[in-house]
């Protein structure tokens, strides 16, 4: 392509767009017009130029073969970062709140999977159930301990159903974070609040499902017992307090049985809560015969660990028991047996009566028969325990009376032979050390698996794990080891 010629005229002629004759020192056109010719000097055009590219010197020791091909670095597209949505601009916590809401709603499925019968047994008889309680807590006031407990339980359920070990590990991590938040919450004035107790109960539920050690649930239940005792019975008379008490009631009784100690739920101020609730149900038109039987049965169940503990102390004592202790104990055991027989008779009704709403209440028809049967099985096993407690106490009284008569006949300084009753009682006491499991009340001993699937916890919560034991306690349970009371002295 031919280059475009550039004019060499003066600037005045160039601006007038006329042909310059380029006469020196000034052109004729400017002279004729009476203008001063500026001449033909051009201004300097300064431009920046990069230095020429210099290739780096080659290494003469290791010359690059000619056959080598220089591999160029592949060009990669820049990463597309997600753009910030308008929701995140206007409400930065919107995604977190949506996830928290989904987590709380998923807790309903966890309840239906592990505790369908227990949940329906009191759902319509309480002022606030679990889901109402979780939905009503403002997001800004929702305790982190409670949120992480819910996440851990839901994730553990997903992991066990899918056989996903990574999900179970994640659930354990969430449980650990929940414990850290709970530890901090217990150091605040909110340690006795409903939210704190709910966090303890759900984290205790995780310990039962996937405990860090064989009896870790015992230590956790100790803490729940102390918190509930510090709150007092009045805090559990209505509202979410009563729901929390009903939810963890079976495990508190089980812990007392395992430790061989008195259960605080058997005290008069706590058993009176059932009567108060029944009066309220009558006024609200929420009467349920099945729910009434369940509450009354558990009131009697809660007294049994105390009977067991006192009986064990009497058998192990080298001195004769005071009648002020023995007589009320036998009377209370007899009253409990009579009361439980009455409750069992109320369960043994015709099938047509069970189908009535006045009997089942909010319990679905699919769970009415199994719920009634589980309660009846628990009553039968408790009756077997109370029967053997009263038998051994009466036999111990007769033995001690014969010993007193022998001392009167043979003298106080006589040396009696070995006492088989005393040896048996001491053996019984040693075998049932408080650190050893008693009865069948260990919710972590359902099966050979350490991860109970299905409604095993639900069944345990209705019969205290003793439903599969016959009245003579001669057959082992499918959920736990053989009960120890069958080895009591006759």
Automatic annotation (TrEMBL):
<dbReference type="InterPro" id="IPR001138">
    <property type="entry name" value="Zn2Cys6_DnaBD"/>
</dbReference>
<dbReference type="Pfam" id="PF00172">
    <property type="entry name" value="Zn_clus"/>
</dbReference>
<dbReference type="GO" id="GO:0003677">
    <property type="term" value="F:DNA binding"/>
</dbReference>
<dbReference type="InterPro" id="IPR021858">
    <property type="entry name" value="Fun_TF"/>
</dbReference>
<keyword id="KW-0804">Transcription</keyword>
<dbReference type="Pfam" id="PF11951">
    <property type="entry name" value="Fungal_trans_2"/>
</dbReference>
<dbReference type="GO" id="GO:0000981">
    <property type="term" value="F:DNA-binding transcription factor activity, RNA polymerase II-specific"/>
</dbReference>
<keyword id="KW-0238">DNA-binding</keyword>
<keyword id="KW-0805">Transcription regulation</keyword>
<keyword id="KW-0539">Nucleus</keyword>
<dbReference type="GO" id="GO:0009893">
    <property type="term" value="P:positive regulation of metabolic process"/>
</dbReference>
<feature type="domain" description="Zn(2)-C6 fungal-type">
    <location>
        <begin position="9"/>
        <end position="37"/>
    </location>
</feature>
<dbReference type="GO" id="GO:0008270">
    <property type="term" value="F:zinc ion binding"/>
</dbReference>
<feature type="region of interest" description="Disordered">
    <location>
        <begin position="46"/>
        <end position="65"/>
    </location>
</feature>
<feature type="region of interest" description="Disordered">
    <location>
        <begin position="470"/>
        <end position="490"/>
    </location>
</feature>
<protein>
    <recommendedName>
        <fullName>Zn(2)-C6 fungal-type domain-containing protein</fullName>
    </recommendedName>
</protein>
<dbReference type="InterPro" id="IPR053178">
    <property type="entry name" value="Osmoadaptation_assoc"/>
</dbReference>
<dbReference type="InterPro" id="IPR036864">
    <property type="entry name" value="Zn2-C6_fun-type_DNA-bd_sf"/>
</dbReference>
């Amino acid at each position: 392509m031919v280059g475009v010629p550039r004019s060499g005229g003066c600037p005045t002629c160039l601006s007038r767009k006329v042909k310059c004759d380029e006469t020196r020192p000034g052109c004729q056109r400017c002279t004729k017009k009476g203008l001063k010719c500026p001449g033909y000097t051009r201004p300097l055009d300064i431009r920046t130029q990069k230095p020429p590219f210099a290739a780096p010197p080659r290494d003469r020791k290791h010359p690059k073969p000619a056959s080598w091909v220089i591999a160029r670095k592949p060009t990669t597209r820049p990463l597309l970062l997600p753009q910030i949505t308008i929701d995140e601009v206007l409400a930065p916590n919107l995604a977190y709140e949506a996830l928290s809401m989904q987590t709380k709603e998923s807790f309903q499925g966890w309840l239906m999977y592990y505790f369908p019968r227990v949940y329906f047994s009191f759902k319509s008889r309480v002022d606030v159930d679990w889901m109402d309680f979780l939905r009503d807590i403002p997001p800004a006031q929702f305790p982190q301990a409670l949120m992480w407990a819910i996440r851990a339980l839901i994730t553990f359920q997903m992991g066990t159903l899918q056989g996903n070990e990574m999900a179970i590990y994640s659930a354990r991590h969430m449980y650990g974070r929940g414990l850290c938040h709970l530890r901090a919450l217990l150091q605040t004035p909110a340690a006795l609040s409903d939210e704190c107790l709910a966090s303890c109960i759900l984290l205790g539920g995780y310990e039962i499902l996937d405990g860090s050690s064989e009896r870790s649930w015992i230590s956790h239940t100790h803490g729940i017992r102390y918190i509930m005792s510090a709150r007092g019975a009045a805090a559990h008379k209505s509202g979410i307090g009563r729901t929390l008490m009903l939810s963890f009631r079976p495990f508190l009784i089980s812990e007392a049985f395992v430790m061989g100690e008195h259960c605080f739920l058997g005290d008069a101020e706590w058993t009176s809560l059932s009567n108060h609730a029944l009066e309220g149900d009558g006024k609200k038109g929420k009467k349920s015969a099945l729910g009434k039987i369940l509450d009354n049965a558990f009131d009697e169940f809660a007294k049994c660990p105390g009977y067991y503990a006192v009986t064990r102390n009497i058998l192990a004592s080298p001195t004769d028991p005071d009648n002020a202790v023995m007589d009320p104990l036998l009377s209370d055991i007899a009253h409990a047996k009579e009361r439980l027989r009455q409750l069992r008779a109320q369960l043994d009704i015709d099938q047509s009566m069970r189908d009535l709403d006045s009997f089942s209440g909010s319990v679905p028809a699919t769970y009415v028969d199994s719920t009634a049967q589980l309660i009846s099985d628990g009553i039968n096993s408790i009756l077997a325990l109370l029967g053997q407690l009263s038998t051994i106490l009466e036999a111990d009284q007769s033995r001690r009376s014969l010993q007193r008569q022998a001392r009167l006949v043979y003298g106080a300084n006589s040396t009696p032979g070995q006492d088989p009753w005393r040896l048996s009682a001491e053996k019984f006491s040693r075998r049932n050390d408080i650190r050893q499991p008693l009865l069948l009340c260990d919710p972590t001993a359902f099966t050979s698996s350490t991860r109970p699937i299905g409604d095993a916890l639900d069944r345990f919560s209705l019969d205290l794990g003793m439903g599969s034991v016959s009245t003579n306690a001669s057959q082992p349970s499918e959920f736990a080891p053989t009960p120890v009371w069958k080895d009591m002295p006759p």
